[in-house]
Design goal:
alpha/beta, seven-stranded mixed beta sheet, about 20% strand
Length: about 400
Amino acid sequence: MDLNTLLQHAIELGASDVHLKVGQPPVLRHDGDLSPMDGIATLEDSHLEGILEIVTRTNPKRRTQFEETGDLDISYSVNGRRFRVNGFRQRGSISFAFRIIPAEVPNFEQLGLPPGVRRLAGEHRGLVLVTGATGSGKTTTLAAMLDHINRTRHQHIVTIEDPIEILHHDHGCIVNQREVGLDTESFQQALRRVLRQDPDVILIGELRDTETAFTAVQAAESGHLVFGTLHTLDAAETLGRMIEFFPAEKQQQIRSILAGVLRGVVSQRLLPAIGGGRVAAVEVMVSNARVADLIREARSDEIEDAIAAGEYYEMQTFMQALISLVLDERVDEEVAANAATNRHDFQVALDAAKKHRAADAAEAAAQAAAASAGENGGTAEDGVAVAVQPLGASLR
């Protein structure tokens, strides 16, 4: 089996991931679901050993680490297309998960991201966190935010990633991308050095522990714009996780610092779209005086209410995002209800939103009819009567 041909075929089929496991044919993820590739025989141990040799050929150190630990994170390229590769041992055999990286950095409009994401990308200092489960599109959203900065400013961007996924070419900015295990020994070492590299913007691939979280906060506090990711589902959980990185005796101090440096949290989930593909439901929290007070006073249970009331600051809750997707006929109502944090609350809010939209449509129709009647020499009352008459006639 030729690995490059297989991966190229997966790209042509529109897959997002390729799974390779002994005893199975290659399996593709498409729109969130897995299905085997047609016409390809099941994989044997020799195939997977060969793939390990291919993907680690340019980085023998990673091969040695895999032999020692049974885990591999590395990037791989085929004809200019990049893949994030995770290799691991299971039941004595090797398995792989290849994530297909977009050929070009998508913009906010292509991703369907709400205005609040662009607002956070426009910050010049502070901490911005992008969160969600694995495979929820965090990397792509961050790439769009960095690309926006890259094309609109003249600054120095440093990223620390494991591995590097989307490549950023220099546009208005200088972009240096450091890969853990290849360009630097560890996240911790890279973070200890990054402030000496004269950065304006720092991307930390993942906040994994107390040291990385503290360095991110420290860099933001010193006037840099810092982006990071966490595997949390919403803003309230994200704030709790950030605080929990630190021992109890330091948590109040960290809350005070975080209240000052946090600029916002973007949390997202990918849902199947009507007509195929997937669409992101995005919660956006933008820090304002109320949010800062809630962080400082450890009242994270009130964060969702603050987001819901923050339309002026271009905030939106998950529920508001889901309702918008359903009303715009981009996501099926049942799919959205299953994704909601509370199904009953979502259904009640959706029904209210439908009635509100119907009332707005009726009012707009009445105004249009009145305007038309006025142009024809009638009165507004005549226009409303004309609009209503066909319905009455049909009832008779």
